[in-house]
Amino acid sequence: MISAISGMILAFLLAAVFTSATSFSYASTGQFTSSQPINGVVMKGAFVNMKHDDNGSPSAPQNYIEDSLKMISRAGLDHARFVFYWEAYEKDPQAFIKEIKSVAHAADKYGVKIIYDNHQWHTSSWLEDEGTGFPWSLFQGNSKYSRGGGGNTPDKAAQVFWGDWWDRSVKDKQG
Question: What's the rounded Cα separation, in Å, for the pair 51 and 68?
Answer without folding.
Answer: 23
